[in-house]
Amino acid sequence: MISASVTLTQPSSNHRQFVATSGTGHHLLIDDAVGNTGAKPIELVAIALAGCTAFDVIGILRKKRQQVTGYEVRVEADQALTPPQVFTQVRLHHIVSGVDIAEQALEDAIRLSEEKYCAVGAMVRLSAEMHTTFEVVPVAETALVGT
Predict the structure, then answer these.
(1) Rounded average pLDDT over 6-17
(2) What is the pTM of this model?
(3) 13-27, 48-62, 95-109, 132-146: lowest mean pLDDT where?
(4) Assigned CATH topology for domain 41-144
(5) Beta bridge partners of 1
(6) pLDDT, position 133
(7) Domain spans of the chain?
């Protein structure tokens, strides 16, 4: 079971800032564009999607013994114009750097994440079209000497 709580930080003011606490005890601020002291809840969905697929992909690449030296997932999402303003289009871009990274291994890892493992992606796909791209940034093995 996943659990969390969201608590209003300043009940006597007009601010809409909340402290979110995960079931595992981690805290973060949630706010709106007016207060701008934390991420908006919808931004957290985009972050969760990028994080979910990143965990899957790096795990799979490591199992395939790919020499990953860097990894980033960028996400952009378009929303419906009217409430509830769900995501309608989502673009994910994976950037993997490393030594002799096999593009097929990366493609397979991304596909497995999207089709099998990423729970956040499965939920987002209920309202949005997902488009995924990737790039491999080669790193020479000699560049790793001394790191």
Answers:
(1) 94
(2) 0.93
(3) 132-146
(4) GMP Synthetase; Chain A, domain 3 (3.30.300)
(5) none
(6) 98
(7) 1-39, 41-144
Q: Tell me what pLDDT residue 131 has.
A: 98
Closest alpha carbon to 2 in 19, 28, 21, 27: 21
Name residue 78's beta-bridge partners: 89
Which residues share a beta bridge with 22?
4
Say if CB 42 and CB 88 are below 8 A apart. no
Phi and psi, residue 42, nearest 5°? -65, -30
pLDDT of residue 143: 66
Could you give the C-alpha distances from 55 to 29, 49, 112, in angstroms and in order?
23, 10, 12
Distance CA 36, CA 109 (A): 36
Mean pLDDT confidence for 33-49: 96
pLDDT score for 141: 79
- At 61, give phi and psi (nearest 5°): -60, -40
DSSP lists the bridge partners of residue 99 as 67
Total count of residues recorded for the chain: 147
